[in-house]
Amino acid sequence: MYGWGALLQEGIAMIVMKFGGTSVGSPENIARVHDIVKGRIAKKPLVVVSAFSGVTDKLIEAGNEALKGNLLTDILARRHRDMIDELQLPADTIEPELRELAMLLQGISYVGEFNTKIMDRLQSFGERMSSKVVAAYFTSRGMPSTAVNASKAGMQTNDHYGSAEITPETYGLLREGLSHASGIQVVTGFIGVTAKGNVTTLGRGGSDYTASIIGAALGADEIEIWTDVNGVMTADPRIVPEAMTLQTISFDEAAELAILGAKVLHPKTIRPAVKLDIPVRVLNTNNPSHPGTVILKESQNPNFFTGIAIRKDILLINITAAEMLGVPGFLEKLFGIFSRHEVSVDFIATSEVSLSLTIDKQAYTEEIAEELAALGKVSVHDDKAMVAVVGNKGKGKPGMAAKVFGTLANADIPVSAISLCASRFNIACIVELVNAPKAMQILHAEHFVDVKK
After folding, report:
1. Exposed, middle or buried, 308 (CB in 10 Å: 0-12/13-18/19+)?
2. Model confidence over 121-159: pLDDT tens digits?
3. Which of 106, 266, 270, 271 registers the highest number of CB atoms within 10 A of its CB?
4. 308-447 domain in CATH 3.40.50.300?
5. Does 10 have pLDDT greater than 60?
6. Residue burial 124-153, b: 16+ Cβ < 10 Å; e: rest
7. The domain 4-228 is classified under which CATH number: 3.40.225.10, 3.90.25.10, 3.40.50.150, 3.40.1160.10?
8. Considering the entire predicted model, what is its pTM?
9. Torsion of CA 97, 159, 366, 356, to 10 degrees
10. Every domain of the chain and the residues it spans
């Protein structure tokens, strides 16, 4: 087995392998993960794991129940102890974590407080326990491994609980913190720590983000994201059964698809990899021989269209204001409102005196509504969805937008607003929520028949 300090000093090539909750969610799957990692020993893997599938949600439920005086410690303990028993691991593998978890839930019940700071600490137990179970199993199978808590290995973040961001010092801290262990390091995904020692979580896609950050810190040759699908697909296969796996996709295209609703990756996941041009490969734990999708700095896809995404959790806001016409500063006032409330605007379309935009549905508050009303006439619609077609080679090509809107018009699907990206080809439109699946199906059938699998 290899020593990490020597590897880092010598600059020897290595890979980062991240396994999601379903990939480690059963004894059979953990055994499969062992075999996959063992097959890549020559590449010097570092492993990042999520909590067992369903555990993060159960931890949040346990926190809310603790407020009511109901303790779910036994349910959480049973799930992990059953896993340990089936994998024939030492019974005390995670007993320290279970005792600490029980104390935290008792504290929530006694004090009657469950804020975002406490929630982050509570959620961290999922990854802390899964990493110890996976590392113990690897070791029991003759592959010496060490469980590493990322929050103790240098994953330093700000204090934005629930969706923390790393600090500039994080990369150096991780390089140092991960240099001492030997054998396979099994690192907790999703969690970090503030400079004051408070546990944080990295938000949606947090374990993928962890893998990307560590890959950048250690100068990995490649980052592998192991999921339950064969890679990045041209559409959601639950809606379009004919959806195909893409061989390659650019970082920009992957970010666009993820931000617009595709479920495989989150844009934060690939941000650290983009900066260092580290390839990210999306693979299927249940089908490890499939080559998956490689996300590269530049696309190698010869087709105009790469993928289609639907985003359903949006709120369409229409604003009409005479003040927009020839008066400087209106957009500054408008976006200042969203900035003050830390709300991201995903879509925008404007005319001389009106504007349409979308935000996450749950981000809309009464305070935002009051401030918007001061700018003009406002209408809000929660029965819409965004449908977006993403591609790397369509910009500037005559007829590309016409192809998309012509297809929707022929299917009698009304469009409420449109937006065309200025850099790459990304055309997004707002349709009725009930029409979104049909829009994805007909666009895929019409324009993706030639996409290579």
Report:
1. buried
2. 999 999 999 999 999 999 999 999 999 999 999 999 999
3. 270
4. no
5. no
6. bbbbbbbbbbbbbbbbeeebebbbbbbbeb
7. 3.40.1160.10
8. 0.83
9. -110
10. 4-228, 308-447
